[in-house]
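User: Please fill in residues for this 423-position structure.
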């Protein structure tokens, strides 16, 4: 009876521990749509801007997410937490302005608000290529060796952001990828979702990324696209990560391996693209697992690979950065630290995008040391039980032998004396 009680208590402890896991600092978030616009529905601010203030104990994270005037972007500014006014003065009409000076005055820090760090992500271009050789490798083809479509995100038209968004869930859906014939991204066939968090936990959706109060998960989805005659269509998503430091500051992609695929079956890696590899606690990151899904009901059976082509400089796409909302904050955007990569989707023989007409991938943008998968307390519990039982058996077994030995000492002595008599 005693031991059964112990076992029950032990399980309760393990069970509780697995909830303690999801604790951590909690922030308080407030969201504004189209700040600077009285009615929140200024046509000048189309397709809309979201400003999220996330207050922590010692600092404030300001998120500005928008595709106004340029490619879809997210800017994160970490500031101190002053006594007085702490909200940034953001005017979405100035951000949308064609006038250089107005764009430069669109995001203002009130007196007393000091920047600690700032960084952001910009999605610049989308490449569709015909994977005739089924290599799932964008670098395998040059401009002439296969059919390409290049979608420049700065000419996209987007649906009104506030139409689909809620306070912690900012949604960008494409309306039209531009007026060029043979290009076919319409009506939500490309969706970018930014899910902001004010606490730590693990995403309920595959790949079940661990998030914290400083992170935002970004879902990128392509669906129902007429890929034309490219019967073996695949995609590359060109992405830029920027940090406030000077351009000489290197960034790096660090891939960590794990022995445990508990949360993302079949996936044993996580990659972190760090803006400050030598000081990751005070830098930004983009994190992902090398997996995307070919159906909206995500499952291991419809999973395929995500790869990056490595970091490169951005000179040839700096015009995209100039048209992005980040230009309104970084007056020196051409001399800060910024790198680009292509994320590519798919694996040889997986049928490519065309097979299901769907690809969805999740990454995470955040501040500070990137969250890491820890072996869950359930697994720890199971392992300890697995290891514990033999240990208990060995201990009790050993004890039993010792006791047995002690109580039957006489016999052994007899045996010994027998032997000695034989000798
Ligand atoms: C794409 O590749 C397939 C073979 O994989 C070929 O049949 C098709 O004609 C190609 N389409 C274009 C537009 O090149
Ligand atoms: C997109 O939606 C609009 C309005 O619902 C519709 O008129 C148009 O035909 C759609 N375009 C495509 C390519 O499906
Ligand atoms: C993918 O979806 C588009 C739009 O609905 C459609 O025109 C196209 O034929 C589909 N392609 C395939 C291979 O099913
Ligand atoms: C696709 O193929 C058809 C028939 O072969 C051809 O008429 C059409 O021009 C092709 N379209 C493109 C975009 O290559
Ligand atoms: C992404 O891939 C395209 C097509 O190969 C290439 O033109 C572009 O330079 C690549 N971008 C980066 C950042 O590597």
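Assistant: Residues filled in for all 423 positions:
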């Amino acid at each position: 009876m005693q031991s059964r009680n112990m076992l029950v208590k032990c399980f309760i402890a393990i069970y509780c521990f697995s909830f303690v896991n999801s604790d951590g600092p909690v922030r308080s978030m407030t969201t504004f749509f189209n700040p600077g616009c009285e009615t929140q529905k200024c046509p000048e601010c189309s397709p809309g801007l979201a400003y999220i203030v996330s207050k922590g104990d010692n600092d404030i994270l300001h998120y500005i997410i928008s595709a106004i005037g340029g490619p879809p972007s997210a800017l994160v500014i970490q500031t101190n937490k002053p006594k007085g006014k702490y909200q940034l003065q953001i005017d979405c009409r100035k951000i949308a302005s064609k006038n250089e000076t107005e764009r430069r005055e669109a995001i203002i820090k009130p007196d007393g608000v000091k920047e600690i760090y700032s960084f952001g992500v910009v999605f610049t271009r989308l490449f569709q290529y015909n994977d005739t050789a089924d290599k799932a490798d964008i670098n395998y083809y040059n401009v002439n060796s296969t059919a390409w479509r290049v979608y420049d995100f700065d000419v996209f038209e987007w649906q009104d952001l506030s139409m689909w968004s809620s306070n912690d869930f900012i949604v960008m859906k494409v309306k039209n990828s531009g007026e060029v014939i043979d290009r076919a991204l319409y009506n939500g066939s490309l969706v970018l979702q930014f899910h902001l968090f004010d606490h730590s936990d693990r995403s309920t959706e595959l790949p079940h990324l661990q998030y914290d109060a400083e992170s935002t998960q970004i879902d990128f989805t392509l669906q129902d696209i007429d890929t034309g005659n490219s019967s073996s269509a695949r995609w590359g998503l060109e992405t830029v990560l920027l940090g406030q430091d000077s351009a000489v500051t290197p960034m790096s992609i660090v891939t960590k391996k794990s022995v445990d695929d508990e949360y993302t079956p079949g996936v044993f890696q996580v990659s972190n693209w760090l803006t400050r590899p030598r000081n990751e606690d005070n830098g930004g990151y983009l994190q992902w697992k090398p997996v995307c899904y070919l159906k909206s009901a995500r499952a291991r059976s419809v999973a395929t690979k995500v790869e990056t082509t490595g970091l490169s400089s951005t000179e040839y796409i700096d015009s995209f950065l100039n048209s992005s909302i980040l230009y309104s904050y970084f007056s020196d955007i051409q001399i800060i630290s910024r790198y680009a990569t292509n994320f590519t989707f798919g694996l040889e023989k997986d049928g490519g995008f065309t097979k299901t007409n769907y690809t969805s991938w999740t990454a995470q943008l955040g501040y500070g040391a990137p969250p890491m998968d820890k072996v869950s307390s359930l697994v720890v519990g199971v392992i300890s039980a697995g290891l514990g039982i033999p240990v208990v058996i060995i201990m009790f077994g050993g004890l039993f032998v010792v006791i047995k030995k002690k109580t039957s000492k006489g016999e052994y002595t007899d045996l010994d004396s027998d032997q000695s008599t034989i000798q």
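For context: The pocket of 2-acetamido-2-deoxy-beta-D-glucopyranose (ligand 1) is lined by residues 130, 132, 147, 229-232 (CB under 6 Å).
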